[in-house]
Every structure is written in structure tokens, then in C-alpha cells.
Amino acid sequence: MPKTSTCLWFDRDPLEAAELYVSVFPNSRITAVTHYEKNSPMPEGAVLTVTFEIDGRSYTLLHGGPVFKLSPAASIVVHCKDQAEVDRYWQALSAVPQAEQCGWLQDRFGVSWQIVPERLFEMLLDPDAGKRRRTTDAFMKMKKFDLAALERAYAG
């Protein structure tokens, strides 16, 4: 199988963003930083790319300037084992309250994240359509997921 990775186009501050991400997630590290050379579209020495890993998955942030904008159409999903993890990642990353919906948030750099309890995926795969519907109805009204409220909706 080919190895794949994610590259996100940044208008500014890719190193600052990568430093935040590796501080938030355990088992993370910056693996490479490249810089613009002379006669480049950005000033010589400015950060061009930052590559980092979160739990063995590679991400690259490309400092390309204000040509393309990040979009919530692409997001990074964080699978959380419990409400404490949901709360911790939400607190560390959420910076745009008006962008919050159904477990989705946006950080101060414009990257969209989905902070999702693993249990939600189990609920949504239940063969009982009523349980799936109640769970979906409940999470559609949430910003940050509330696992206890999801469990109550699921149980009926």
C-alpha cells in the first residue's frame, strides 16, 4: 500500500501551528522544517513547510500565502475515548465559536477539527434505526459532543 499524508495550505504561521499541535497531542513531534530560498515568493528564510506527526500520522503545513483558504470541507478527526478527552481537545483547539457544530471546531489558524467520542461511531452503527435516529437528532443540536447526553438519547 502507498503511504499517504495530509498537506494543508497556510496563509501564515505554519511553525506556530505545528508547535501548538504537537503540544496538544501526545506522541507527536515536528520532523522537518524547510525555508524559502532567495528569489522565492516569500522572503528568504521564511518557513516554507513544517512536517510533523501526530501518533505516527504525517501532516505538512505549507506556507503559501493568501492564495487558498482552508475550508471545513476538510477536517482532522480526533477519536476520543471519553468525555475528558473530548473536553481537553476542545479546550485546546477551539478558537472560533461560530464555527462550532456537531463536534466540529475551528482553531485559530483556520484548521477544522472533529472532536468525536469513539462511542458515537458505535451508536451510529447500531442495527436499531430508532437508536441511530435519536442519537443523530441529539448530536445535530450540539456544538461540543456531550457523551452522557448522547447515551441518554441512544437509550431512549
Automatic annotation (TrEMBL):
Record Gene3D superfamilies: 2,3-Dihydroxybiphenyl 1,2-Dioxygenase, domain 1 (3.10.180.10)
InterPro entries in alphabetical order: 3_dmu_93_MTrfase, Glyas_Bleomycin-R_OHBP_Dase, PhnB-like
Ranges for domain PhnB-like: 3-116
Signal sequence extent: none
Superkingdom: Bacteria
One Pfam family hit: 3-dmu-9_3-mt
PANTHER family: PHNB-LIKE DOMAIN-CONTAINING PROTEIN, PROTEIN YJDN-RELATED
Name of the protein in its database record: VOC family protein
Species per Swiss-Prot/TrEMBL record: Ramlibacter humi
